[in-house]
Amino acid sequence: MPTIKISRFNSIQYEGYLVHLDKSNKRLYLALTKDQLGHVIKNFDYGAYSDKCPKSRGYLVYHDEKTICSIYQNELASIHQYYCLLRDKKVLRSLDYFAYESLYRTIAHKYRLSKKQAYHRLKQKHYLPTASKDFSSSFLSHTGEPYTLKGVRTVLREVDLLLTTDPTIHHHLKKILT
User: Fold this and answer.
1) What is the Cα–Cα distance from 135 to 129, expressed in whole angstroms?
2) What mean pLDDT value characterizes the chain?
3) Alpha-carbon gap, residue 91 to 88, rounded angstroms
4) pLDDT tens-place string over residues 105-133
5) Do the beta carbons of residue 46 and residue 103 sit within 8 Å?
6) Would you call 54 helix, strand, or coil by DSSP?
7) Which of 8, 13, 46, 48 has the greatest count of CB atoms below 10 A from its CB?
């Protein structure tokens, strides 16, 4: 891993990313441009960011609802984990919008429903993915063990989720880097 020295600069371009240095608390932050965001949306096949048009992923309609929702949830989790150093998390909200709309369109395509009916169907079955603004707190919730922020079972569940991710997610994230 190469070392970056940007002590004399406020920002630097490194491997396609704009890296900012916050001198007050001495942390590095990433900036995600609209072109890079469009590239991420295109690689995950959520639609066309330039046209503001999410699309259905027809190749997922052969799976059941729970599997489709878990695929989207795993993708969103990996994207949010990959871009955890972003200073402005609002950029990821448009990515979440495309992911949610793509999910609703995929379910609507599967059952030949409208997007609104697909949303209500998923809401009724509690299959909706987690929103980005409370992503870190609600994705892996506290199980209720006293005297700890996270219980032992929660930590084990987190480790299990990290170890059992879909290999296609890592493939898409590798495509983003190139």
Assistant:
1) 10
2) 75
3) 6
4) 999 999 999 999 999 999 898 887 765 44
5) no
6) strand
7) 46
Note the pLDDT tens digit of each residue in 19-38. Answer: 777 767 667 778 888 888 89
**Pairwise CA distance, residues 119 & 128, whole Å:** 8
**Cβ–Cβ < 8 Å for 41, 175:** no
CB 42 within 8 A of CB 97: no
Nearest to 98 by CA among 60, 43, 150, 149: 43
Q: Which of 1, 16, 83, 9 lies closest to 44 in space, CA to CA?
A: 83
Classify residue 85 by its DSSP letter.
T
Q: What are phi and psi of 104, to 5 degrees?
A: -65, -40
Residue 51 makes CB contacts below 8 A (sequence gap 6+) with: none
User: Where do the H-state alpha helices sit in the chain?
Assistant: 34-43, 65-82, 91-111, 115-124, 135-138, 152-163, 167-177
The tokens for 27 are 């942390």
**Distance from C-alpha of 45 to C-alpha of 39, rounded to nearest angstrom:** 10
